[in-house]
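can u pls check wat happens w/ calcium ion
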Amino acid sequence: MKRLLYFALVIVSFVLFTVNVQPIQAQSNCDPSYPDVCIAPAPPDLDCDEIPYRNFRVVGGDPHGFDRDRDGIGCES
Ligand SMILES: [Ca+2]
C-alpha cells in the first residue's frame, strides 16, 4: 500500500511539474506586446506576411510594427 502511495505521488508530481514548466517555456519566446498569439520578440523584425496570424490584439510597444494605425489590432485583413 505504501508503494502504491509513493507511485501515485511520483505521478502527481510529474504531472504538476510538466503542467507548470510548459507554459513558461512556451511564453519565453513570445513577445508580450501580442498576448493572444505567440510571436518571437524582435530582432529580427517581422512583417505580417511572415507570420500566420491576422487581427490579433496588440498592446504596448509593438516592436514589430504590426499595428501601424495604432488601433490595437495587428495585421488587419
Ligand atoms: Ca491596426
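The CA atoms of residues 1 and 72 lie 57 Å apart.
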